[in-house]
Amino acid sequence: MSDASRSSGPSIVLEFVVLVCGAVVMAYEIIGSRIVAPYIGTSTYVWTSLIGVILASLSLGYWLGGKTADERPDVKVLASAIFVAGGLVSLTILIRDLVLSFISSAPAILELKAVLASLILFAPASVALGFVIPYATKLRIATLDDAGKTVGRLYALSTIGSIVGTFAAGFLLIPFVGSTRSLYIIAGSLFLLSLLLATFAFNRIAMISLLLFAAGVVGSELTSAYLKKAFDLQEFDTEYSHVRVFTSKQPKTERPMRVLSTDPYSIQSAIYFDTDDLALTYTRYYHLVRHYRPGHRNTLMIGGAGYSFPKEHLRVYPEAKIAVVEIDPGMTQIARRYFNLVDHPMLSIIHEDGRTFLNRARSSTFEVVMVDAFGSLFSIPYHLTTVEAVREIHRILDDDGVVIMNLGSALSGDAAMFFQAELATYRSVFASVDVYRVDAGAADSSLQNLMLVGRKRIETAGVVLDDPVLEELLAGRYEPGPPNSSLVLTDDLAPIEYFSSVAHALASDASTR
Fold this sequence. Notes:
This protein is of the alpha/beta class and 513 residues long. It has two domains: 11-230, Up-down Bundle (Growth Hormone, Chain: A), CATH 1.20.1250; 269-511, Vaccinia Virus protein VP39 (Rossmann fold). The protein has 17 helices and twelve strands. The strands form two sheets. It has an eight-stranded mixed beta sheet, sandwiched between helices. The chain has a four-stranded antiparallel beta sheet with strand order 1-2-3-4, sandwiched between helices. α5 runs antiparallel to α6. The termini are far apart.
């Protein structure tokens, strides 16, 4: 190899490039999860697809980088590859909404949707970034005598960069910059890194990369401005979720309301602009508490989001305390700003994972536990669905305690696997479990809100007369039949994502017929 062909510049620059590219890869992967979240959620399937596709793409990039380095070891080639990587990140910015909208509406299982989204949006740039390590290694190796030391040093720098990128994405970029604008920074950094490494002729590919960057930034900002004006859309990246707050209308009454959503398939919270009435029908079913535990004084609610029912609880049951366990402090801030949440002496807010709170709470502390925690795919976080979690709920309730749980599932058919498993799980712990369907007109095989009510003692339930609201709620009771052989969910085996994936695939297929 001639000295001219090895014009790599100062070694410190090449090592800095390897370090930064390692950081970019991990930041790109983590931010990718937030990019796809509004369309296909944040389930294990999404993370698995992102990690698997990006690793496969990096492997292809390693092979291409090593092969090209042997054929043409020139620093300008490496600089061009990094510049192209910036263009491909820009392409992600430009086409993400179009691609994800198409994929999310397709009648396919979540696994396939997640893999396709990862391949189309994140594989191309990952291949280009995988090009860097083997190519830089070729440029840095002077003799075979120091080959091992050089390879080890560069891979160590890349790994250190990956560590930095991981923490930077999770602790800084996502919560303080936002997912989309973080991609601006990644793409811009790659362009600058390329120019730092070597100057090269601005050919057609370089110009296209810059045009993609400009189009992606301008298009994204204009789209954001339009949505904000048309729908009062506000988007936030908290520690745990990508949150959308926007103006919508109640489907049946056309009443305007403000909506909070963290999931492509459902709305987590909503409020009317003109009254304090509960905007989402399922939240009214927590008032079953006055049938099953009339006169209650101490309630725990797992899951806050927009704090719709906790505010209702304070209004309707002024003598009762309510503690809300909400994992995401950012969600509480949003509720304070957009959903009229204010401090109240009978309300306590604990920012903690619901399961860890259950594990450490004192026995027989609460009279009522309400569960309204949702993750991705209209499903409850798996560790709140298992028999171990249900036993903890049972333990922290007093002798006449009641749990009221909201879940999304069908009542029958293949889409009902989650309901059947959760019902079997609750029946294995509580003396009695009643089921209520929120939408009486929905088919048993359709995805819908269901309410499970578990009692520690069958004698707990009372009768409240002259209460039209309660009479309407009680009319929604559903008789699921005797226990069957459904799976009892455990911490070791709780395939919630699989159940939800099947249910949504069936729902999508039905909607296209």
